[in-house]
Amino acid sequence: MNSEPTKPKRAKEPPPDAKIAQIITSEQVVINVGRDDGVLVGDLYRIVIGVDVPDPDNPGTNLMTLEYTKGTIEVTQVFDRVSIAKPPSIPGLLVGGFSGGLSGGLGSGFGGFDFSRPTLNVADGAVALTNEQLKVRVGDKVRLDAHPK
After folding, report:
1. d(CA 146, CA 142)
2. Comparing C-alpha atoms, which of 121, 35, 46 is closest to residue 80?
3. For residues 30-63, b (16+ Cβ closer than 10 Å) or e, as one string?
4. 3-state secondary structure of 20
């Protein structure tokens, strides 16, 4: 007799892209895909923004568009047409005393843990993404990152 809980079957593959439909709190959002779209509890999505990379030798021409991840969310509840998601828990990370949530930046989705890394001494106005642009907003694109099989 198998004592493992039965995992729900996926009706179909969820679409690779969706959007944030509502921000409930800094730790919980609603995305515009749900059970009818094949979403399951545990699906991981990245909140993304596109950053155009201009060609410095050919003004007005872009070399490419980079996809920058503002944060990661995990589906915790699924309804027919929408799902509720929050930043995933990281086993072993003590989050007491850290500010968490979906405010954007490097700590997003990681309980506000501040990863230290060296920075570059860049010219004023040369940074492509500002802190304001990194904030999570209604309408932001979310991209399916991983889902339980």
Report:
1. 12
2. 35
3. bbbbbbebbbbbebbbbbbbeeeeeeeeeeeeee
4. strand
Encode pLDDT of 12-58 as tens digits. 899 999 999 999 999 999 999 999 999 999 999 999 999 999 999 99
Three-state secondary structure call for residue 51: strand
- Beta-bridge mates of residue 68: 49
pTM, to two decimals: 0.74
CA atoms of 3 and 103, how far apart (whole Å): 40
Residues found in the chain = 149
| Calpha distance 118→8 (Å, rounded) | 44
Strand, coil or helix: what is 80? coil
Q: Which two tokens stand for residue 57?
A: 């030798």
- Please give the backbone phi and psi of residue 114, each rounded to the nearest 5 degrees, phi first: -95, 105
- CA-to-CA dists, residue 115 to 74, 107, 144, angstroms: 21, 7, 24
142 phi/psi in degrees, rounded to 5: -120, 140
